[in-house]
Amino acid sequence: MYFLAKTFLMFSIVGHLTSIKITWENDVSFNTNETDFERMPNWLLIFPGTKWCGAGNISNNDNDLGEFSDTDKCCRTHDFCDDFIEGYQTKHNLTNPSFYTRLNCKCDKEFYKCLKSVNSKPSMQIGHIYFTALGTQCFKKEYPVVKCINFTYLPRKKCVKYEYNTCKEKVYQWFDVPNF
């Protein structure tokens, strides 16, 4: 049985300093005969029209993409990042204090560029959610940060330019992801 569901998604992300609300509408077709109800909780956390964009994925295999396939390819590549730190875990002498996985900055940078190059409504929405609204951090090996020399304040305070101590050896550190 096919039916068209008008999906009204509202993402409310509440940070320590701010509350952000991003709202949009998408038309999504569902085939209830093919829906795997055991995976429904994951399905609810995936951006409509994709299988890889969100918490986990709902694909049947690595080549299974959603309606917005170009955007989905960006998310799939991001999901396959080989350098990550899962929530509350330690790697590279860094402990991830968040419940979600954080990635190496090179993976987030590629994700950013990919979503921008797709330049579709879904890719822009996903970019704004991940980079601007969530405002997570990534990690990389860099000269030690001395201080932040340039901030952005909307929707929350983030460092956009750092001063480094180039006299010391590079170490792994957390960095704010850029706004989208």
From TrEMBL:
GO terms for biological process: arachidonate secretion; lipid catabolic process; phospholipid metabolic process. It is an enzyme of class 3 (hydrolase). Residues 46-141 form the Phospholipase A2-like central domain. Its EC number is 3.1.1.4. Keywords: Calcium, Disulfide bond, Hydrolase, Lipid degradation, Lipid metabolism, Metal-binding, Secreted, Signal. SUPFAM superfamilies: Phospholipase A2, PLA2 (SSF48619). PANTHER family: RH14732P (PTHR12253). This is Phospholipase A2. It comes from Ignelater luminosus (Cucubano).
